[in-house]
Design a protein that fits this description.
Low-confidence stretches: none
Number of helices: 4
CATH superfamily of the domain at 36-91: NAD(P)-binding Rossmann-like Domain
CATH architecture of the domain at 36-91: 3-Layer(aba) Sandwich
CATH topology of the domain at 36-91: Rossmann fold
Structural class: alpha/beta
Mean pLDDT: 85
Strand order of the largest sheet: 1-2-3
Radius of gyration: 14 Å
Order of helices and strands: HHEHEHE
Shape: globular
Helix content: 25-40%
Largest sheet: 3 strands, parallel
CATH class of the domain at 36-91: Alpha Beta
Number of strands: 3
Length: about 100
């Protein structure tokens, strides 16, 4: 049985109403011990604001933000830069190979 639970959100409204989440996210980002060349995958990146902050902390790395909401990705893509890309994708459909650790 396959269940597709894609939900769409208004990315512009979220951008304006998510100050509390962003404050919390900024605190977590500050605590990360990033060296500057990491590759980061942000699942459920929303409007991409925090994802862009992470990209700023890894100038020699690469950041990919993934969200299943077309509205969120539409707003997030306005923040793309050389080391930052966004993908409209359900996390259950990620095209990565599973590896044992």
């Amino acid at each position: 049985m396959e269940i597709n639970m894609t939900h769409d959100f208004d990315g512009k409204k979220y951008e304006l109403a998510s100050a509390h989440q962003k404050e919390w996210g900024e605190k977590i980002i500050r605590e990360l011990e990033l060296k500057g060349a990491e590759h980061v995958l942000d699942l459920g990146c929303g409007d991409g604001t925090l994802t862009a902050r992470i990209a700023g902390r890894v100038p020699d790395g690469k950041v990919v933000g993934v969200d299943a909401s077309p509205g969120m990705i539409g707003v997030a893509r306005q923040k793309q830069m050389a080391n930052l890309q966004f993908a409209l994708l359900d996390i259950n459909d990620l095209p990565f190979k599973k590896r044992s650790m």
